[in-house]
Amino acid sequence: MNAVEIEQAISDLAEQPFDAAEFPYAFLEAFGNKDATLKRLRQGVSNKSDLDGVLQTNNIHIATCPAGAVTQMLDALRASPATAKAKAKFILATDGTTLEAEDLTTGETVACAYADFHDHFGFFLPLAGITTVKQIRESAFDIKATGRLNRLYVELLKDNPDWGTEARRHDMNHFVARLIFCFFAEDTGIFHSEGLFTTTTVSQFSDKDSGNTNWVISEIFRGMNTKLGDRAASDLRNWANAFPYVNGGLFSGDADVPRFSKIARSYLLHIGSLDWTKINPDIFGSMIQAVADEGERSALGMHYTSVPNILKVLNPLFLDDLRAQMDEAADNPRKLLNLRNRMAKIRVFDPACGSGNFLVIAYKEMRAIEAVINQRRGEADRKSDIPKTNFRGIELRDFAAEIARLALIIAEFQCDVTYRGAVQARAEFLPLNAQNWITQGNALRLDWLSICPPTGSGVRYHAEDLFHTPLDQAQIDFENEGGETYICGNPPYLGSTWQTTEQKEDLQRIFVGRTKSWKSLDYVAGWFMKAADFGMHTKSVAAFVSTNSICQGDQVPILWPLISGQGFDIVFAHTSFKWANLASHNAGVTVAIVAIANFSDVQKRVFTTSADGQTVVLVASNINAYLVPAPSVIVAKESKAPTNRALMVWGNKPTDGGFLVLNPDERRVLLQESPEARQFIRPYYGAAEYIRGLERYCLWISDDKLEAANSIPAIPPRLEKVRQFRAASIAAETRPASAFPHRFRQIQAVASRYSLIVPQVSSERREFLPVGLLPESSIVSNLAFALYDAPLWNMALIASRLHLVWIGTVCGKLKTDFRYSNTLGWNTFPVPNLTEKNKADLTACAEAILLAREAHFPATIADLYDPEKMPENLRAAHDRNDETLERIYIGRRFKNDTERLEKLFELYTLMTAGAPAGKNARTRGTS
Ligand SMILES: C[S@@+](CC[C@H](N)C(=O)[O-])C[C@H]1O[C@@H](n2cnc3c(N)ncnc32)[C@H](O)[C@@H]1O
């Protein structure tokens, strides 16, 4: 169940008559417990309560009680040995009049009237496995309103299927935006009379059978689009005449309203009865977007970008600087005035704004700063100098764009109420002005300069105007001579495999002529390039939340030389962290924040999240494309290993249709039939075989032994199948290999004694790369890399934290897993010159790792390196290895990965300094 469904179920329960015996089960059912679970609880099989209540292990202990005894019952639940034994996370007591509950993990409590407990459903969401970010829990209203509006939306589409078609989708979205405005306006006094829309008008003047509901609402909308001076001639009904003139594009144009069924009418009245003063425009906007998107409805109420995460972008982008200037100004009226004037000219531009959450947060934060300025200057109730039209956006989806504009309108009103008082806010709020500042369209195809033009010029009218209505003026003039532009947002990230044809075309249009490799770029790269193009015309900074893949591996040499080629540097970055967008089950993607600017008078900063969740800031003289505070080098593939380490090669590629490879049974049968086949059978290892301990073998027949092999009856039929498979291959380079079916198609090398194996892909969860030693005569497949007969200290290098960090940074990831490359990761890995003593120490470390693993035989590498189960002795062996290696690098342990990377890039720059041009490191500006 998603948060909206749970809210609905809890609200339904609160409305039913209280049934003391049934309540605990009904409560658990509302949180998604299945019939079978409830049955077991009812039967007492799984009910662990010692207080005649219901105790679900690892979850909640609920008890009902006689009237007036709720607090005592909660105390009893808290003290109950069964509560502790069953590790209950919550306790809850109710007598049907009041309800009290406690989150035993955090100590937070709820005490409320029974009838209101549905308002606290967010408190209990962890019961449904939804570990919520705090803000979501505090957004009970937004979830509730989203759920109710969703029901209405779906109901209306049932009765008006044409409104769900492409042709009318905009009308439907626009209608919902108008409704939301009305609900908000009637609760906040904007309509001057409380409940004017829902209670006074729709409820009273539309028939109970809903036959004329659409006409009544349409008439109200017409009223809000008629200037007071024109009312006399407008033939408006009296009740519609009671509404103020709102317009501002919101009510202009067609006042068409979909037909209402009785159910839809009752839903509408119910939604209107909610307390809309509680709306959070940034959160509500994100949630409500899903209503118009069938594919997203299942996650209704869950889509939400947390304010702290948005501030990770906005604070370093410009808000910190404004606050610093405010602190510096103290009570100096002239300095404060300068800051206010500066803020009035700042434009914030989000070219993938969704429902406008970045813009709303930026607006609210700036209003807070302005309020302090006005207070210090003795002008507390001064009208804001910050025009909301300076918060510009582009958004592809129609409904989200509608909501973005509405969210800013609501945010403006709420700020006015907070900083200037409700009376002033109401007095000046209407009519809305008709400017268009959120453009609906494709940001990668639109001209950003026309939407957020360089300082001092106007904005052209856009055909894809938000409200699809003629505007009062053809362009909006900014009073922003000398103003700053801050570009921000979290544009969509999509790897090349997932891009639609149209999205690929978007990228092609931007990158063609600049690089031939644009197809490898993530979709988000388009926003960075457009921001750099925009900056060619005006001084600007852009900070986007991005997939970290654009700062790792293959994409780095494609994208970043183009960005730096246009004079942009990375001015701040937040290295990888989880972006909790979906509150469900802690889901979150790993992202980075990257900010680019085309001026240099800024202090560069790298933000990282430490192990204990704190943000650590590092001031840097330069930040390179890997987001490391180090020189701007780009690590390029190097075909040869430097002389101070062993050669690492790709494993051997069979291209055999599976006929040269044997599972243990096939091997057994073959050996039973022909014991002399043993000489042709070798242990066979790829990534899966090595990591998961899968047992496989292969036929390994050298040319000089072919005759002997062919004399074994089971072998020639296999070779014939290999021959046929290769001969029929669609790959031209494979077909000639049908001439030697006894051999692997590509043989890189084999060990004379032993091999070290490095799988190509390894789970991102592992803290170390799974390098290992194979039994003698093993064959390594093309799903791994191999070092043949290499000194064991090479294994110590590969098993180190230093190497893992380097690989994660320069080789990039396959989905989220480490993707190893010998040419990009091993041959480029900076290693100081090792003395014989160093090598001996590292050899001992590698041996200790192997011995520690051996002690847990037959545990596989996957078992041993599961971060939650890694054996202590193995962890200690790795720790010793890291200690030994890091002392060789800097004489002590590195403090963190940022420091590791700083050192590695410093050494890499030195290592490649003498390389001929075009080799190894690439300097900025080349591609
Ligand atoms: C990750 S969301 C971010 C929106 C909002 N900031 C939030 O946190 O919910 C990305 C937004 O970009 C929009 N989008 C996708 N492709 C776009 C394009 N080519 N042009 C403009 N917007 C686009 C999507 O519709 C979506 O609303």
Explain this structure.
By secondary structure, the protein is an alpha/beta fold. Helix content is 40%, strand content 13%. The protein contains 33 helices and 27 strands. The strands form 6 sheets. Strands 8-7-6-9-10-12-11-13-14 form a 9-stranded mixed beta sheet, sandwiched between helices. Strands 1-2-3-4-5 form a 5-stranded mixed beta sheet, sandwiched between helices. The protein has a 4-stranded antiparallel beta sheet with strand order 16-24-20-22. A hairpin with a 5-residue loop joins β4 and β5. α9 runs antiparallel to α12 (262-273) and α13 (281-288) runs antiparallel to α16. The longest helix has 23 residues, at 307-329. The chain is globular. The model is unreliable at 456-479, 582-587 and 916-927 (pLDDT under 50). Bound molecules: S-adenosylmethionine (SAM). The site of S-adenosylmethionine has 19 residues, from α16 and β7.
Any idea what the shape is? globular
Calculate Rg over CA atoms: 33 Å
Q: What is the terminal-to-terminal distance?
A: 49 Å
**Helix fraction?**
40-55%
What is the beta-strand fraction? Answer: 5-15%
Largest sheet: 9 strands, mixed
Biggest sheet: strand arrangement: 8-7-6-9-10-12-11-13-14
* Secondary-structure class: alpha/beta
Compact summary:
With 927 residues, the protein is of the alpha/beta class. The chain contains 33 helices and 27 strands.
What key phrases describe this protein's structure?
927 residues; alpha/beta; 9-stranded mixed β-sheet; 5-stranded mixed β-sheet; 40% helix; binds S-adenosylmethionine
